[in-house]
Write a structure and sequence with these properties.
alpha/beta, 2 domains, 11-stranded mixed sheet, 20% strand, globular, binds NADP nicotinamide-adenine-dinucleotide phosphate, 2-dehydropantoate 2-reductase activity, pantothenate biosynthesis, 6-PGluconate_DH-like_C_sf
Length: 301
C-alpha cells in the first residue's frame, strides 16, 4: 500500500526546508510554496549527519489542490497574509499544521479555517537557511504535535508521518500546554538577549539574572490563570537549564534585531501581555521589554 502523503510546505525558510528534505527522504510527495511563483522547481541541499540533495516542485497549483497536509512554517506574524490567499485552493479535508514560535497567530483566523483539521506543533530542532539552496540542520531536537480543533483530534497519523521522517515527534493531545511552556521560556530569554545583543549564556550573569526571575514571576501568574500546571520553581529551573544548554547560541529574536528584521515579539511577550490584561494581572517587566523591542523595530524597520 502506498502510504506516501502529499504535502505542501508554505514558507520554506529554515524550518520549512529542513522538514521538506526529511519528509521527501522518507518518501512523501513534497511541494514548496514560496512568496514568488518562479522558479517552478527548487533544488535544496541539506547539511546534516548525512548530506543530501533534493529537488522539489514549487508553487504547483495542482499539488496545492491535492495536498493532504499543508505544513505552515512561516513566522508567526506572516501566517495570516501567507495562508488566507491559499484557502480557496484547498480541499476541506486538507490538514493544516502550524509550526512556529509564539501563540495567537491563528486565533483570529479560526472562522476561516475551522472546517479544516488543524494541528499545531512545537520543535526544538535548529535550522539555518544559508542561502536559497542550502539548509543546515544546526541542532538535533524533537517535536510535539497535537490538535487545535476537534477535527484535528482525528489526525494522529501525522505524528507517525513526522516521526518516521525526523524523529522524535510525539503526539500531545494537550499541545496548548506545550506551546504555553515554550512561550514562557521564550518570554524569559528572547527579549533580553535581543535588547542586550548577547548570547543566551549571558543571562546567567547575576545582574541580568534578576530580570529573568522577575519575568518568570509575572509569566507564572499568567500560566496559573491559564490552568497550566507548572510551579514557578519548575519554570525557573527549566529556563535556567535552557540558558545553560544553549549558552553559546543567539536567540531568534536576537538575530532578528541584529539583522534589523521584524521580530515575533507580538506573538511571544505580546501574547503574554494580552492574556495578563485579560486576567487582570500586572506585568510591568514584560511590558517594558515589549516596548523596548517595539522601539528597536521602529528605529530600524
Ligand atoms: N530556525 C530555527 O532553528 C527555528 C527553530 C524552532 C522554531 N523556529 C520557528 O519556526 C518559525 C519559522 O522560522 P524560520 O527560522 O524557518 O524562519 P524563516 O527562515 O524566515 O522562514 C520563513 C519563510 O516563510 C517565507 N514566507 C513569508 N511570507 C510568505 C508568504 N506570504 N508566502 C510564502 N512564503 C512566505 C519566508 O520567505 P522570504 O524569505 O521571502 O521572507 C521564509 O522563507 C518561526 O516561528 C521560528 O521562530 C525556528
Amino acid at each position: 500500500m502506498d502510504s506516501s502523503v502529499n504535502i505542501t510546505i508554505l514558507g520554506p525558510g529554515a524550518v520549512g526546508s529542513l522538514w521538506a528534505c526529511y519528509l521527501q527522504k522518507a518518501g512523501h510527495n513534497i511541494c514548496l510554496w514560496t512568496r514568488n511563483s518562479t522558479p517552478s522547481e527548487q533544488l535544496l541541499s541539506l547539511s546534516a549527519n548525512e548530506n543530501s540533495s533534493h529537488q522539489f516542485k514549487c508553487n504547483d497549483k495542482q499539488a496545492l489542490n491535492d495536498c493532504d497536509l499543508l505544513l505552515i512554517t512561516v513566522k508567526a506574524w506572516q501566517v495570516e497574509s501567507a495562508l488566507l490567499p491559499l484557502l480557496p485552493s484547498l480541499s476541506k479535508e486538507t490538514i493544516l499544521l502550524f509550526m512556529h514560535n509564539g501563540m495567537g497567530a491563528i486565533d483570529d483566523l479560526k472562522e476561516h479555517i475551522n472546517h479544516h483539521p488543524i494541528l499545531q506543533a512545537t520543535t526544538t530542532h535548529g535550522a539555518l537557511k544559508e542561502n536559497n539552496t542550502n539548509v543546515i540542520h544546526t541542532g538535533y531536537g524533537n517535536a510535539s504535535v497535537g490538535p487545535f480543533n476537534p477535527l484535528g483530534k482525528q489526525c494522529q497519523f501525522i505524528q507517525d508521518v513526522l516521526n518516521h521522517s525526523l524523529p522524535s515527534v510525539d503526539w500531545n493531545p494537550e499541545i496548548n500546554i506545550a506551546l504555553w511552556k515554550k512561550l514562557a521560556i521564550n518570554c524569559a530569554i528572547n527579549p533580553l538577549t535581543a535588547i542586550h545583543q548577547c548570547k543566551n549564556g549571558q543571562l546567567a550573569q547575576p545582574d541580568i539574572h534578576q530580570y529573568v526571575m522577575n519575568i518568570c514571576s509575572e509569566v507564572h501568574q499568567v500560566l496559573q490563570e491559564e490552568n497550566i500546571e507548572w510551579t514557578e520553581n519548575e519554570l525557573v529551573s527549566t529556563v535556567t537549564q535552557v540558558i545553560t544548554a544553549t549558552s553559546a547560541n543567539y536567540s531568534s529574536m536576537n538575530r532578528d534585531c541584529f539583522y534589523q528584521r521584524k521580530t515575533e515579539i507580538d506573538f511571544i511577550t505580546g501574547y503574554l501581555l494580552q492574556r495578563a490584561e485579560f486576567h487582570g494581572i500586572s506585568a510591568p517587566t514584560n511590558l517594558s521589554l515589549y516596548n523596548q523591542i517595539k522601539q528597536l523595530e521602529e528605529n530600524t524597520l
